[in-house]
């Protein structure tokens, strides 16, 4: 059975005169039927077989956030096909006319073979289907990961869709937490659980985004929430007091994030957050950067160069100290972090902060 969507905006787009409250009433009704006639409705209360239309050219991160949250609240199957269903845009329909009117939606061929998965293996029909693209690139990145994870875990017969995609095996390996993707056991977390974390990371990350790095961080967050594992800063000796950066400092960090989009020398770095860190006895506050470096969390304190003690590296103004819980093993990673610190230093200087 099909619910279509939990987002009122999406339901309006689909021209469906259905509300979420009506859907909930159907859930309650079918649960009663399942209790009364269990042989006729064996899974009515589990909601494993519900279908939705989650992805269209117009899907937004806000709509995805609503759907993932509401599906989890209603105990939808966290590895169900609903999580990667996409629109089959048919010729002669109102949505096809809207796509033509909007411009930039209809393309000559699908940019992601994942958009062929649901029409081909779910609906088992592709005739009169029009190739289209997502208007929001964050949604495109999210879908690209989710559909590959679903095929890897649940529909191996669809793997040929991704035979020429080197990212497929890497995404599967990261999700399973295994050295070899196909040999890893089914993890205790679901695509839905990881997907909710991944969506937030994608929305915060600046382009160019590393989908593999962001998935690795999403899985790590879910793993920590399941096991009670500490955050990277847990157990820090004599932790600093943290405070927001001043407006000019936030502007400098924003400028560095823009630089990350284009600089090959900073590839593989995502700046998750930046705050002031006030250490007892230091001459002035440090800038604490929480980063993802090649998929691993790194917490880096950029202290005044006059600060005593060992460091990871120095620049003209900064002495960079990483937390022992987040080591940087490779010289290449250290070099990129040094370039990042220098870029931030230049941006701060231009704003007369140093």
Q: Order of helices and strands, N to C?
A: EHHEHHHHHHHEHEEEEEH
| Gyration radius over CA | 24 Å
| Assembly annotation | single chain
Largest sheet descriptor: 6 strands, antiparallel
Shape: elongated
Percent of residues in helices comes to 40-55%
Number of helices: 11
Average pLDDT confidence is 85
> Approximately how much beta-strand content do the residues carry?
5-15%
Strand arrangement across the biggest beta sheet: 3-4-5-6-8-7
- Write down how many β-strands occur, each being a DSSP E stretch of 2 or more residues: 8
Distance between the termini: 62 Å
Low-pLDDT segments? none
**What structural category characterises the helix and strand content?**
alpha+beta
Quick structural gist:
The protein is an alpha+beta fold and 354 residues long. Helices cover 42% and strands 12% of the residues.
List the helices and strands and how they pair.
Layout: E1 2-4, H1 8-14, H2 20-36, E2 51-52, H3 61-73, H4 94-102, H5 117-122, H6 137-154, H7 166-176, H8 191-204, H9 211-227, E3 241-243, H10 247-262, E4 269-278, E5 286-293, E6 296-304, E7 313-314, E8 318-322, H11 331-350
Parallel strand pairs: 1-2
Antiparallel strand pairs: 3-4, 4-5, 5-6, 6-8, 7-8
Q: Notable features of this structure?
A:
354 residues, alpha+beta, 6-stranded antiparallel sheet, two-stranded parallel ribbon, elongated
């Amino acid at each position: 059975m099909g619910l279509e969507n939990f987002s009122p905006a999406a339901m309006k787009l689909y021209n469906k005169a259905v509300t979420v409250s009506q859907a909930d009433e159907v859930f309650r009704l079918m649960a009663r039927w399942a209790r009364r006639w269990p042989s006729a409705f064996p899974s009515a209360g589990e909601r494993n077989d519900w279908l939705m239309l989650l992805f269209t050219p117009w899907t937004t991160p806000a709509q995805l956030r609503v759907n993932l949250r509401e599906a989890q609240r209603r105990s939808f199957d966290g590895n169900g096909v609903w999580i990667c269903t996409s629109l089959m845009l048919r010729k002669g329909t109102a949505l096809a006319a809207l796509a033509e009117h909007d411009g930039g939606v209809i393309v000559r061929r699908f940019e992601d073979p994942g958009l062929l998965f649901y029409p081909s293996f779910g609906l088992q029909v592709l005739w009169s289907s029009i190739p289209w693209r997502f208007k929001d690139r964050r949604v495109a990145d999210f879908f690209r990961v989710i559909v590959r994870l679903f095929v890897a875990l649940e529909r191996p017969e669809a793997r040929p869709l991704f035979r020429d995609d080197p990212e497929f095996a890497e995404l599967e390996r990261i999700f399973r937490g295994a050295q070899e993707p196909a040999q890893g056991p089914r993890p205790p977390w679901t695509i839905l659980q990881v997907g909710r974390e991944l969506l937030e990371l994608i929305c915060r990350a600046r382009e160019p985004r590393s989908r593999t790095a962001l998935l690795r961080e999403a899985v790590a967050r879910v793993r920590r929430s399941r096991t009670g594992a500490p955050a990277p800063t847990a157990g820090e000796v004599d932790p600093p007091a943290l405070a927001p950066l001043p407006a000019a400092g936030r502007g400098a960090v924003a400028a560095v994030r823009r630089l990350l989009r284009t600089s090959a020398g900073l590839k593989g770095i995502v700046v998750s957050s930046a705050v002031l860190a006030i250490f007892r006895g230091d001459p002035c506050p440090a800038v604490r950067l929480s980063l993802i470096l090649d998929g691993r969390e790194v917490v880096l304190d950029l202290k005044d160069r006059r600060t005593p003690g060992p460091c990871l590296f120095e620049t003209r103004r900064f002495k960079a100290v990483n937390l022992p819980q987040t080591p940087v093993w490779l010289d290449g990673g250290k070099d990129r972090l040094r370039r990042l610190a220098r870029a931030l230093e230049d941006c701060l200087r231009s704003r007369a902060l140093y």
